[in-house]
Design brief:
eight-stranded mixed beta sheet; alpha/beta; globular; 16 helices; Aspartate Aminotransferase, domain 2; 412 residues; 13 strands
Length: 412
């Protein structure tokens, strides 16, 4: 009998796409669904980027490129990283890939060995591909639990306790998916202090939301003293320039760049040529479109946080970046008799026509942290309002009588 490898059978996935398929199936059946489940900007890519891609196609720039990317784009990324992070990044430090996601796997494969007990620390909740790629590479996943009381940062004492002789990589993500949290300079400085005690540990700084910080400047681990040489900086065009389907990202690290290039050669050969020319145009043109998108998301953030906090049994912190909120729905679940956030998610989708993701789609639940769901507010303002109205109505209609009586008929 033909068999599938254990590695493939156990490979994880990104549940946003699973739920999106379910949502699209319901819509195809004629159901009305407002979706907050996918992290995809609802803007068009910049005009100059689209024109550059079309021009590249028309001029026949559709063949193989260097595995590391075209030199002009690597130089543009280096200039952007240097200016926005306050560090020195050279063009030769940069490798371009098919999105930022491949560099997660490239990094893990480059710094850990299969079956050697090498450990990778990563945030929980977090982007689900961290955990799946760590396991697929034969390394050991070690989650660092994020705490709501710390604005969804992990306890530095927890980091210190988990660092060991087997640790090879620490993954950070700020602004963070799924919580939208932004690590402060003081927290990053604390992490850097600990990492100086462990000079053999690499840092993967996942920064696809780098241009979506709302309440201050972007702070990064690579800007801390002695951190740049050991940090892999990863970013992409998907969020900043509303180009997720163009599959164009980039990473920078002086030591690992040649190895990432070989991983590219072994996997994708090279990034798509038209997408590279589009990214070059996006990075080197005036950034007015980026500023406009950030302002719009900032307004939507404030809108959805206010609407969620007005719902019975829901509390929501104000995130500092990205386009996600991570409301606590523990009391809401209790009020309607839902076992957990996943049951609430399913009922919201099928009974209210509101699509969100549950906390279990981003890792294991953290003891004492309650139940959470993720909303992506990368959708029109009108959709945010209607979706929240549907959810609020659903919660009120399904509130158990005993809860109403205990509250004296009043609800939050």
């Amino acid at each position: 009998m033909l068999k599938i490898s254990k590695r493939t059978e156990s490979l994880g996935t990104e549940n946003a796409f699973v739920v999106l398929a379910e949502v699209n199936g319901l819509i195809a059946q004629g159901k009305s669904v407002i979706s907050f489940c996918i992290g995809q900007p609802d803007f068009l890519p910049p005009d100059h980027a689209r024109v550059a891609a079309i021009q590249a196609i028309c001029e026949g720039k559709t063949g193989y490129t260097p595995s590391a990317g075209i030199p002009e784009l690597r130089a543009a990324v280096a200039a952007d990283f240097s200016a926005s992070r306050g560090v020195e990044v050279l063009p030769d430090d940069v490798v371009v890939g098919c999105g930022a996601k491949p560099f997660i796997a490239h990094t893990i494969h480059s710094v850990t060995d299969h079956g050697e007990g090498h450990e990778v620390l990563y945030p929980n909740p977090g982007f689900p591909i961290y955990d799946s790629m760590i396991k697929a590479a034969g390394a050991v996943p070690k989650p660092l639990n994020l705490q709501e009381s710390r604005d969804f940062a992990f306890d530095l004492a927890d980091l210190e306790a988990n660092l060991s002789a087997n640790t090879r990589l620490l993954i950070l993500c700020s602004p963070h998916n799924p919580t939208g949290a932004v690590l402060s300079k003081s927290v990053l400085d604390g992490i850097a202090d600990l990492m100086r005690k462990h000079p053999d540990v690499w840092i993967y700084s996942d920064e696809p939301y780098s241009k979506l910080v709302y309440d201050g400047p972007l702070e990064t681990i690579e800007a801390a003293p002695e951190m740049l040489e050991r940090t892999i900086i990863a970013d992409c065009t998907s969020k900043t320039y509303a180009m997720p389907g163009w599959r164009l990202g980039y990473a920078a690290n002086r030591t690992l760049a040649p190895h990432f290039t070989r991983w590219n050669t072994n996997t994708d050969s090279c990034p798509p040529a038209p997408s590279q020319y589009a990214a070059l145009a996006a990075l080197t043109a005036p950034q007015d479109c980026v500023d406009a998108m950030r302002r719009s998301f900032h307004e939507r953030r404030d809108l959805i946080v206010g609407l969620l906090n007005d719902m019975p049994g829901v509390t929501c912190r104000t995130p500092g970046g990205a386009f996600y909120v991570w409301p606590n729905v523990t009391e809401a679940c209790e009020r309607i008799g839902a076992r957990d956030s996943e049951e609430l998610r399913k009922r919201l989708l099928h009974e209210a026509g509101v699509a969100v993701l549950a906390d279990i789609h981003f890792g294991s639940r953290i003891p004492g942290e309650g139940q959470h769901v993720r909303f992506s507010y990368a959708t029109a303002r009108e959709g945010i309002v209607e979706g929240c109205e549907r959810m609020a109505d659903f919660l009120k209609k399904n509130e158990k009588r005993s809860v109403r009586e205990q509250a004296g008929g009043a609800s939050k």
